[in-house]
Structures are given as C-alpha cells and as structure tokens.
Amino acid sequence: MSKKILVTGATGQVGSELTIALRDKFGGGNVIAVGHSGAPDKELKNSGPYEVVDATDMNALRALVEKYEAGIIYHLVGILSAAGEKKPDLAWRVNMESLKNVLDLARNLKLRIFWPSSIAAFGPTTPKKNTPQKTILEPSTIYGVSKVAGELLANYYFLKYGVDVRSLRYPGLISYKTPPRGGTSDYAVAVFFEAVKNKHYSFFVNKETVLPMMYMPDAVKATIEIMEADPKKLTVRHSYNLAAMSFSAQELALEVKKHIPDFSYDFKPDERQKIADSWPKTIDDSRAREDWGWRPEFDLSKTVVDMLENIRKH
Ligand code: AKB
Asked: Which atom of ligand 1 lies nearest, measured to the CA of 13?
C-alpha cells in the first residue's frame, strides 16, 4: 500500500494540526492537505502539497487519490453541531456524501480510512455519566444524526467489503490554531481568546454545563495511534469512545482566572444550551484503553497553562 496520505478538511480545527503532525512523522511530501472553503495558514501551505477539492465531488476526489497514489485518507470534512442546526440539509449533504465517497474509494482502491465521530452521536436518552461504548444513540441534532449514520455506514463497509476504516468519538476539542467554527463546545476555546484579548467572556451555556473535553495534542495523538494500531486488535469499527477530562463551564472559567486575575465572565445561555444538555457529561473509554493502549496526557490545569502560553505567543 502506498504510504501517501490525504487529509480532507485540512484547514479545519483538527486538520490544521493533524496534517502538521503527520508531516513531521511521515515527511511533508507524503501528506497532501486537502482544503475547500478555508484558507490554509503559512505553515500548512509551506510544509507540503496543498490541494483544493470539494469532497462531495467523487470524480475530483478520485482524481486526487490517483494523482498522489494515496493509500490512506484522514477524512475530516464536516459541518459541526450548531452550524448544522442552521443548515440541516447542507450538513447532511456535506457530512454524508463526502463520507460515502471516501468509503467507496476505499472499497475500490483498498485505502485505509480515518473518520471522526463525536459525542454528538449520543442524545438526550443516552446515560449521561460514564457513557458506555455500546449504548442508546438517539441524537437530537442533524450533526449527531450524521455521526450515527456514518458510524453504521463505516461498520457496514468494514463487514461487507473489508474496508479498513477506523474512527473515534471525539469529545469537545480545545485548540488555539484555528478559531472555533460552529460547534457547541466552542465556548471552551473562545474563552481563552477572549480572556487574553478582552479580559471578559460571556459563556453561551450556563455555569453548570459539563461536557467531555480534550486538548488537541491528545486528539492528534489518539488519531495517529488508532491508525497505526494492529488491525487485529481493533474490536470496534463503528467508533471508539474517547475521553480525557470533563469539567463545568464555571470550573473552566475559574481555572483561566487563576492565570488572568482580572478576567471576568458571565453566563448567557442561547440555543446551544439545549444541544450541550443532550450530550454526556463523562465517557467510558475503557475499550480504547484496552484495545490499542489509549492514555490521555492533558488534564484541565495542564491544558489551560498550555493554551494561554500559545495564544500569547501567537
Ligand atoms: C461540536 O461541538 O459540534 C463538536 C463536537 C463535540 O463534535 N466540537
């Protein structure tokens, strides 16, 4: 199998960091960043090939795989939960058609695929504490519906066609390289930028809101680890539960305030509160730990220190 890697959604929150990590590991020329609407930053553009393709366009995507003789796709294209509620038809089309294209290419060209699911696959009827790997999946957002459908489709392609597709249910992701874009967990990113710039942040969820979260270096590590894992060890082909930490919006604000004493904050919940309330508070990721040795490195205090340091630097 060719060692060349395509990363779709490369200018997004995960893509912009995962692409660089993959280039560091496998060489810049071997990792092709594929963007669509977002503009690549200097680092992404200068560290290896950059292509513009709409992943819902099967012919264009196939041409790209053939041009580079790619063997692996990290398919990160997706419209997130809050943005999806504003444009459900578009979210379904982008999230599902692009995934179907990637799975069909994998089936025909024997590619290995990574595709992220999310805690958004869970819904109001899912047990909220220590949410099990196998549980009720009845999401109330179109994004969540596309994640459940995507998990089922991925597993179907694995069973029916032997496609080597691997997936993680990402928690809310905290990172400093790209601004938050249409997610419900965005408050856990925006608070850092606002605290540094304006010394004030209005959370769009209430102070008791607890969600599973993860710092981006852990998400990147997990993504590369599952893709490098021995396929015989993978017992889940829908999507693995993945966890690092859970905290309330208030706990996050207090942790930031430890480092910025004149930081002030308040809570003005909007329509995203309902989405946050439909998701779990803590996740049981023991299957990922047992199957391929998953261990997170960042807790809340380490994350806050690193985020503030990097935001000030950049
Ligand atoms: C969102 O908030 O929509 C995403 C997610 C949890 O998948 N960050």
From this structure: 8
Domain residues for the domain of 305 are 174-212+245-283+292-313
Q: Which residues line ligand 1 (CB under 6 A)?
A: 80-81, 118-120, 143, 170, 172-173, 183-185
Read off the pLDDT of residues 172-203 as tens digits, 9 standing for 90 and up: 999 999 887 899 999 999 999 999 999 999 99
**119 CA → ligand 1 middle, Å:** 7
33 plus 8 within the same structural domain: yes
Q: What is the pLDDT of residue 38?
A: 75
User: Tens digits of per-residue pLDDT, 133-157?
Assistant: 999 999 999 999 999 999 999 999 9
Are residues 116 and 260 both part of a single domain?
A: no
Q: Residue 30: which CATH number?
A: 3.40.50.720
Q: Answer yes or no: do 204 and 118 share one domain.
A: no
Which residues have a catalytic role annotated? Answer: 143
Question: Which residues make beta-bridge pairs with 170?
Answer: 118
Q: How far apart are CA 245 and CA 282, in angstroms?
A: 8
pLDDT at residue 298 tops 90: yes
pTM of the model: 0.97
Ligand 1: centre distance to CA 290 (Å) = 25
Same domain, 179 and 167: no
Q: What is the mean pLDDT of the chain?
A: 97
Q: Ligand 1 centre and the CA of 184: distance in Å?
A: 6
Residue ID of nearest Cα to ligand 1 atom 5: 172
Domain match, 113 and 223 both: yes
Indicate the residue type of 47.
S
